[in-house]
Structure formats: C-alpha cells, structure tokens
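Quick one, tokens below:
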C-alpha cells in the first residue's frame, strides 16, 4: 500500500451535516492534535487523545468513524511547541516514514483539512470571515452565503517509457542526486491526458503517444491528488528545459531494479517508497 492511501475511516458524510450528531460524537471522540501542521506522534503511532479544555479555541475537524469511535483532529495554536507527556509533534513527511499505513492515511487527511482551513478563513467572494460547517467539509460565508469546500488539487505524475527503458528527470528543487518521474498541476480546462502531454513537452521535450493511468495517491503538501501515469514515448529524443528540469536519463528495467535494491552506489538516487513516483518506477520495472 502506498503512503497516505487506504484510509479506513467511515467519513459519515450523510450524518456530519447534523450539528447535534457531531456534538455527540465530539463528546466521546478521540482527537489528533496538530501544531503548525505537524501531527502528534506517540510511540510511532498517530497520537489520538481524549479532549482537553486547552484546545477549546482551536480549529477542530471531523475525520470519521473508526468502527464506533469518532476521530477528530484539532489545531493547537501557539508559537512554541506545546509539551506533550509522551509524544512530540513531527513533520508530516517524516511521520509518513514511521507511522503505520492507516495512521499515515488518517493523519494525511487531517493535515490536508486543517491546512486548508488555516488558509481559508476569509470568503474569496466578498472578503468576510467564513464559518466552519459539516465537521470541516464546508465553510459558509455569513455575509454573502457563498459556500467553500476543501480543495484537492490534481497533479499528474508520469513516467515516459519506451521499450525496455524509462526516462527519469532531475528537478532543480530535488535533493542532491534524486531522479524521479515528471510532475505538474493540472490546469483549468485540461484533462488528465492533456496535462501529461503538456508537462512532458514543457519539461522534457518528449513526444508522447498513448497514456495509461496507473494509480493515484493523496499527497497532503498541502492538498494534492497525485495521478500516476505511464506515457508511451515516440522516440528517445528529449530536450530538458534546463530550469525546472536540469537533467534527464533513460534507465533500463535492469538498472531500475538494481538501483531500487541499492546495488548501484553512485550519486544518483531513486524516489523514496512514500512517493507514488517510487511505485511508478518499481511497478514498471517489475515485469
Ligand atoms: Zn462572502
């Protein structure tokens, strides 16, 4: 299972619109505190705790039902990190390496929601302050009655392939030595395939034939949905843009397998298993 996928919660979307039902759930729920977009991690698990009075002023969102247990996340304010008895607030990305898969998925959902609310307190239509509704799945503007819904931004991430080879690129923002799949936001008016073609043309100068969808991954940085695809290259020619992409290389399946197994020791690294890019490359090289 990919990181952030496989969220097991029942989001109770038909019931969370009822304030009385939500209030009852809060009375018996568990809460995952966030501080500056970092979840509480306790003994390598998501740190769900019973309600505390000091969280009263914090933004609180409903995550869903874990069996019969309602789960929430709460944003803990403050400039200095609150001291927790046996855990600590950890960066979401780092947490994904240590938490069990279900905890990563739930914490990712919570992070995306809280992060969105922190940045959307005012109505984009009229500028008035908005109110959180439906446990956090809607904001309502009391001045102009506009409704605003937490965003998920589609991002295409694709691996150009040709015969026994795939093309990986080095993004200028990547840590040293990392080569990965190509990626970019889907723009208004684009289908998934349009975005794949445009991004590969812009970043890598690769001409593309058929495009196949492979898998998707929620990616809460801040709130993307990664759409993983394979793009059939029409030739081995490429022309990197030199700004966003600073290098690109064709790799054979055999080389990919060796690199993922860390049998080749050089400056080049492959994407980490928490990223869908890792799965795109690995799944393609498997056969
Ligand atoms: Zn408004």
């Amino acid at each position: 299972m990919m990181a952030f996928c496989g969220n097991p919660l029942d989001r109770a979307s038909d019931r969370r619109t009822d304030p009385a039902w939500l209030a009852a759930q809060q009375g018996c729920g568990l809460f995952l505190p966030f501080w500056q977009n970092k979840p509480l991690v306790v003994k390598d698990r998501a740190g769900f705790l019973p309600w505390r009075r000091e969280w009263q002023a914090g933004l609180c969102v409903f995550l869903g039902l874990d069996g019969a247990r309602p789960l929430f996340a709460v944003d803990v304010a403050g400039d200095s990190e609150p001291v927790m008895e046996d855990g600590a607030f950890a960066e979401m990305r780092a947490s994904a390496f240590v938490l069990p898969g279900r905890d990563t998925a739930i914490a990712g959902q919570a992070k995306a929601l809280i992060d969105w609310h922190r940045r959307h307190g005012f109505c984009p239509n009229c500028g008035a302050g908005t109110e959180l509704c439906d446990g956090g799945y809607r904001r309502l503007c009391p001045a102009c009655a506009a409704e605003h819904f937490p965003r998920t931004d589609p991002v295409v991430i694709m691996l150009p392939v040709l015969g026994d080879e795939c093309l990986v690129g080095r993004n200028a923002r990547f840590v040293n030595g990392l080569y990965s799949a190509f990626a970019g936001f889907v723009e208004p008016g684009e289908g998934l395939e349009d975005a794949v073609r445009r991004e590969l043309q812009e970043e890598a100068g690769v001409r593309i034939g058929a495009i196949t969808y492979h898998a998707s991954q929620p990616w809460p940085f801040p709130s993307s949905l990664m759409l993983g695809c394979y793009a059939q290259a029409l030739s081995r020619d490429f022309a990197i843009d030199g700004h966003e992409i600073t290098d690109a290389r064709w790799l054979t399946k055999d080389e990919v397998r060796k690199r993922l197994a860390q049998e080749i020791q050089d400056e080049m690294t492959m994407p980490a298993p928490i990223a869908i890019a890792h799965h795109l490359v690995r799944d393609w090289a498997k056969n």
